[in-house]
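# nightly structure sweep
# worker-07 picked up a monomer target from the shared queue
# config: single-sequence mode, recycle default, output format = structure tokens
# input follows
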Amino acid sequence: MNADLIFKYFTTLTDAQRAHFLELEALYQDWNKKINVVSRKDIDELYLRHVLHSLGIAKIQIFNEGADILDVGTGGGFPGIPLAILFPNVNFTLVDAIGKKIKVVQEVVEGLQLENVTAIHSRVEDIPGHFDFIVSRAVAAMPTFVHWTKGKIKKDSAHERKNGILYLKGGDLAEELQEYTTVQVFDLKEYFEEEFFETKKVVYLPQKYKGHN
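# output follows
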């Protein structure tokens, strides 16, 4: 599958955005040979399993101009890089504790000349600042993820939806989410027709601002 899969679902892209999405495959193919961050099967289906999956968040939440988004455990740059292409006027901070993964992210960001992405080799607990939304792709069970990202949410919401976590997950989440009364779960099969999305979801969990004592 190629970038046409993205253009099928996102029909109002600018020429620059289309060019960026088209460039992704060659950049990842090249860097993945040097530093393996994506499995061979996934590289062959990059646009389905990584790019479009990442953009599932955009079907649930449109980020306002000037918003600050934190991508935790970004790995090879997902969901952060596809979202940064889609929202060029939004600030993205991509964090991963594994240095070689952030190296690939930095090289892809440089290759695309994305000016709205900062990639940091760090644990999320050590990242300064506050964010409108925290995004991620299933790096841990939700209670663990909430603990990691505690204190990272801005006090005031600039979007209709309250500030919080937007988490790409799959499978049965009932037990994992049972303690969260405010959680909302969105099925990506409602937005994308490919079989890959049959069990894929976006989990939205509003988060309260926790000031420093």
